Amino acid sequence: MSSKIALLLFFYSTALVAGYEANMYACQSAPQCVSQYLVNLGIATPPYPSYVAIIGKKQQFLGNGASGLDQLCSWNSNFQRCMSQDPQCLQGNSSSYLADKLRIARQEAELYVMYFAENVYECTDGRNDLLDNLQCFKNHHNQSLQVINRCRLAFDSDISRKCELTASLTECLRDGFGQECGKGTGEFMCNEEKVALRMLLVLASMLVPTFASAEI
User: What keywords are assigned to this protein (predicted)?
Assistant: First the structure.
């Protein structure tokens, strides 16, 4: 795990241990920062698009190979700097505040948290694996979005069981992409999702024993 990802997780877990809770001032920076990021992808806001719609736009840039990924990572770095004074917003237990600021459903806000965590992974630890699998994502663009949508629908079906459903989500992505593109792609998607889930469910990992002991 890269130092940047580890640092983010350390901040969130330390804050929770100390009793730090989401507050009404969380996510004040979100509308400006998210809008600025999405404009780079060619998406005007508001309204704010779905997670799958953003992924679709991102895949268009990834079609340009390493140069496309470099551009996406540059935009993500700008986004992270924009949010640096409001880091609490990018953790799972602030998703209701993010949803309120962007006027989107809470479930969609949780997917935004995961999306930006995925970006960090793709620009650090997962960069080489992503580049190795770009051709597959390009050749199977529609199928990729279908797999992502199908797996997330099951994950979002029961908010109270999110911690229990994490393993099912990662396995669904691994198997779905493995079938479309091969084992290597499936493993990449599984590993990326584990990083995103750690960021989203850091609170659950401390409160739900089954999550803390799971292979996430």
Answer: Signal
